[in-house]
Amino acid sequence: MAEDFKGQPRLPSFAAPRRYDIFLKPHLTACLFSGTATITVDVLLPTQFLVLNAADLCVHTSSVSLTTSATSSDTISPLSIELVEEDEIMVLQFGSQLPLGESLLKIDFSGTLNDQMRGFYRSKYEYKGEVQNMAVTQFESVDARRCFPCWDEPAFKAKFKITLEVPSELAALSNMPVSDEKINGDLKTVSYDESPLMSTYLVAMVIGHLDYIQGLTTDGVQVRVYTQVGKTDQGKFALDVALKSLNLYKDYFAVPYPLPKLDMVAIPDFAAGAMENYGLVTYREVALLFDEQFSSAYSKQDVAITVAHELAHQWFGNLVTMEWWTHLWLNEGFASWVSYLAVDAIFPEWNIWTQFLDETSSGMMLDALSESHPIEVEIKHANEVDAIFDSISYDKGASVIRMLHSYLGADCFQKALASYIKQYAYANAKTEDLWAVLEEESGEPVKDLMNSWTKQQGYPVISVKMNSNKLHVCQEQFLSDGSSAAGTWIVPLTLCCSSYENSKKFILTSKSDELDIDDLILNKKGKQETFWLKLNTNQTGFYRVKYDDELAAGLKYAIQADKLSLMDKIGIIDDANALCVACKGTLSSLLSLMDAYSMESDYTVLKWVISVSLKIANVVDDATPDLSDKIKLFLIKLLESPAEKLGWDVKERESHLDTMLRAELLMALVRLGNTSTVDEGIRRFYIFFNDRNSSVLLPDIRKAAYVAVMQKCTSSDKWGYESLLKIYREAHQSEEKMRVLGSLASSPDKSIVLDALNFLLTDEVRNQDAVYGLNVSNQGRETAWEWFKENWEYISKTWVSTPLLSGFVKSIVSLFASYEKSKEIEEFFANRVKPTFERALKQSLERVNTKAHWIEGVRSDDSLAEVVSHLADKA
Ligand code: BES
Ligand code: ZN
Fold first, then answer.
1. Is the pLDDT of residue 526 over 60?
2. How many C-beta neighbours within 10 Å does residue 532 have?
3. What is the reported pTM?
4. N or C: the chain end with fewer CB closer than 10 Å?
5. To 5 degrees, how large is the angle CA 33–CA 36–CA 39?
């Protein structure tokens, strides 16, 4: 009978937990913990079994009992307790059918504070000159079961009453405020208020030496930022963003923040970027801490987005929770989208919605692979869940929400969200529940429209042709390797013609359609040269556009004449790049298009020009080594003039975006091998190395200089490498350590690359950070692959249960660009692949093949040499 419960995606639903009374006692030096779970279980259907989750726990079998009535005389013990390791469940069989209704299940257990950054784990930090352990939890997605036995699925919401016994000098935090604290000698027993109904993956505890700063929202909710002792100043920015976001969300969602307090804590070892635990949000240090003097503008933005994202989850995710992991995107896509809404309101000068196109583009990049997956994805086993925290759930998710938001209008959308939150508060929802609410509010067929985007993988490219005054549009699924597939979508199309006032909207419901745009192009005749037509106005749609030659020429004119919005300028170059990679456009026409951006000075647009430039520079090394220098020369020319305008030093009162642009431009010029930039970077590095307080190398531009230093570093003169290591070792700030790590492996010298990679596996680099050191150049990639194979055993064991293992696989595999290599890599993994990184591996291999295909395309571009000569000479 217990067999029936094995290999199932979900726990049986004949019993459900209503309340957990959890007692935990961590031993911070021995790295152990013990605990008791007293769970109020509601038996809903006749059964002799209770089936719940437990993993890596030592369950004290003799302690397990079920009290079936108020009089404790009715306490029974299970006949058998079976722990099914591969399903992470525990099956309790009783001698007879359990009485329906509530009983108390009591279980004693113990476990190890592990080093894997999941479940109940330990993080190391320094306190008063000594290394100490902090006890931390990370339960999403399926790791609460590693801390206490529980019904570890999002739909089993229950109330939690937590009690901790910890050393009395430590801060001990959990989701709710402290209700009682008793000190007995070196230990204290801290109990917390009972929580409202919530899912297990949101339960959290943090125990360690911590300081805090605090503030109050307009509603009087107490918000604190906890950091290591002495670092609270670096929490001020996040606290400010948190207070402002909470004030904003309570209005936007029209529901107050659901708990009496919110704590946010910086954790020194943390697998993800941040985690939205209810009332106790945990962060990687770089995602929470900001230092006016030592942090970059980019970090500032990252902290703001991360805080706004996690706090959005307090409503979207925590108060209303996805019914099952298939609907993970409801959590992540929404929190991502909402975070931009909040950051835009708090920092309007950041132009964050234009930057949002980063998300759309990452989503599109992943979703153009055959190895992508639909937003709503079937989950058959707990070990498949972590793999879907990817660009599809986050970026495509957020982007299709933006598409719908723009289609329905802001007011209608907000009203619907507010009523959705109200309707499903303290409960769970599926994707279609949200569509139903939106449908009711708007009167539009939201469900049909959106099903085509969330139940089907991929997205279309819309080809447009003009034929007299008719616009012919045709959709086809877009795949990066240029192959075709059968998908069709209901596409909300928008277009503008020669002016943003002159616009149209319509829904494409079939493969192709013809559209009369007579009214829009009345003024075309006679003014042929100023005519332009742009589809997907401001890139709100999740699709690409391929224009016929005439329309493409019109857009090039519009870019040069500065007629287009920033978002449209970005969209045009992003689509052109993707079409070129898929060999649906030539590299020569992409380069000519880029030339039209030579007068651009805006950060958001130039960032795209830069990222496309670097991709091109990377592929031409492999595709056309003969033309590679000339192409790079053209790209350098393109970026040099905005770089010269900005210079290396911050101007007084310059904008946040210019500060970020400077960093991007200098880094790109270094990567493109521009000698004067590399030399200046090295010159400034010398000064900075000898005087760390010098202002010649402020945090924003530092990484460009570090990479310049590493590009010139060789095994016969390792000064650059040694100096950077010294900076790494002396750095107090995680952000600075990351800058160094991200530069070390960019040397062209193989033995330095090897040193840098080996360094990643030493004790000096935290496991959470190693993957950021895999920034290897084309010259270093073979070395990196050999190193990776040799160390696979160690790497796969060390990062086994973290999403970071996927990161390793992705970073290394994606360096390559040939069919042979992809085959070789596939063979290496044939008997090594595991479910946790299988998806990442397949996607990375597909990327390698796509690049190989692109290389073939570039090689067959007959006009490339001529176009490149023309562009390079002209520039
Ligand atoms: N819920 C996630 C954290 C998470 C990620 C848990 C993966 C389990 C597996 C959190 O809300 C999140 O999305 N964090 C992001 C940062 C955010 C700004 C996009 C992260 O960790 O990168
Ligand atoms: Zn999230």
1. no
2. 22
3. 0.98
4. N
5. 140
